[in-house]
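Note to self: user wants both folds in one dump. Writing first protein now.
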Amino acid sequence: MGMLQNKVAIITRAALGIGAGCAERFVREGAAVVISDMRVEPGEELARRLRASGARAVFHRADVSSEAAIQALVERAVSEFGRLDIMFNNEAAFEPVGPLESTRVEDWDRCFAVGLRSVFLGIKHSVPHLRKAGGGTILNDASVAAIRAEANSPAYSAVKAAMVNLTASAALQLAKDRIRVNCISPGVINTPTVWSRLAGGEAEAERLFANAQPIPRIGRPSDVAGIAAFLCSDDAEWITGINLVIDGGAVAGHYERPRPRRPGA
C-alpha cells in the first residue's frame, strides 16, 4: 500500500520534467492524478502511459495565470475522482532573463502571473475542497533562487522568494482546517528546461552540472518526486509552513565549484 493511497492530486506543469516525475511517483504511491499543463501532446501521452500501467490519471490543459482556468482545473479533479486531497503548484516562468533596465514590464508581469499568481489561485480554489475532504496538502515548488538570487533572473528570483513567504502565511491560516502548506526549493535538476538548449541534450547537462553542488551529480526529477510524495503523505502530518531545499548541498555553505587544474599544476 502506497503512502498516497486513495488520495487525489492535481499537479501543474506536469507534462515534463519535475512535474512528470512527481506524477509518476504519486501514482506509484496510490494516488489519482490530474496532470495539468499547456503542453498538450506530452501531457496527454503521460496520462495515457500512466493509465496503461493501471493508474488513475487524466490530462487537463490549463493556463494557470487565469482564475477561470484554475477553477475549471479543480472542478475537473473533483468531478473525475470525487474529491481533492493534494494541490501541487508546480508552475514557473523562466523569462525574462537579463539586466533589470532592459526588462519589459509585460515580461515581468507575466513571470509573476505564471509563477506567483498561479500559486495564490491554486491555494484559493483548492481550499474549499480540501476542507470538505477533512484536510489535505498544498505543496508549492519554489527554487534555490528564492534563497540565493540569480543575477540574470531578477523576476524569477523575486517570484520564488515571495512564494516561500506566501507558503508560510497560508500555512498559518489553514492549520486549523488540517490543511498543510509547504514549499520545496530544488537546485539544478536535469529537465528539458535545463538541457533543451544544449547541443548534447540531457547527457551534456549531466556532464556540465555534475559539480554544481557538493554531491557530484546533477539532480533528477526523481530526487524531487520522493520528497514531494512524502510531504503530501500522512507521514508528514506534523510538517507545515516549511521550505525544504533539495539541492545536493549547493546552498549549505560557501560552496565553490571545483575548477579545472592547469597542466603541470
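First done. Writing the second protein, which came from a different request thread.
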Amino acid sequence: MNPFASPPMIRVTLLRAAPLALLAALTGGLGACALQPLYPGGGSGVVARSLANVAVSPIPGRDGWLMREALTARMGAGANARYRLDVRLDDRLEGLGLLSNNTVGRERRSLRARYQLIDVASGEILLDATAGSDAGINVVSSDYGTVAAEQTALENLSHTVADAIVAQVAARLSTVPAGSR
C-alpha cells in the first residue's frame, strides 16, 4: 500500500469542495462591479416604499379587475398616492390548430398592457411602456374544460404581466431623486 496515496473518502470530499471553492473565487470580484440590488432594505427600502405610493387606476373588464388586483397586491394600496399607474389592456384569444373535422384544437391567449406612470403633482409621465405575455391552451371536448383553461390562462397571464410592470416601475422609481419620491 502506498503511504502517500489519499484514502477514497478524502478524494471524494475534495471533489465536492472544488466547485464551491471555484464559485467563491469567481464571486469574490463582484463587489467591484456596478450592480446594485433593486430592493435594498427589502420591504422597508426606498423602492418598496416608493411602490407603496403608486395608486393603480381602475381598469375596465374582468381582465382589468384581475390585473388591478395583481398590481395592488405587489405594490400596496397606494393610500398616499404620489404616483398614478394607468393601464390599458388588450386581451386576445385566437384559435390556432384546425383539426380534420374543422374544429379548433389549440388556442393562444395574449395579454398586452400599455401603461404609464404619472407623477400626480406635476402630471409628468415618468414611464410609458408595454408588457405582455402569451399562453397556449388545448381545446378539449368539454366546453367547461376549455372555458376553465381559458380563465386560468388569463389569471396566470395577469400575474406574469403584473410582475413585468412592477419590475419596470420599480426600476424607474429607483432612478427618481430621493427628494422627489
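Dump finished. Worth passing along: The helical segments are 8-27, 46-51, 61-75, 143-173.
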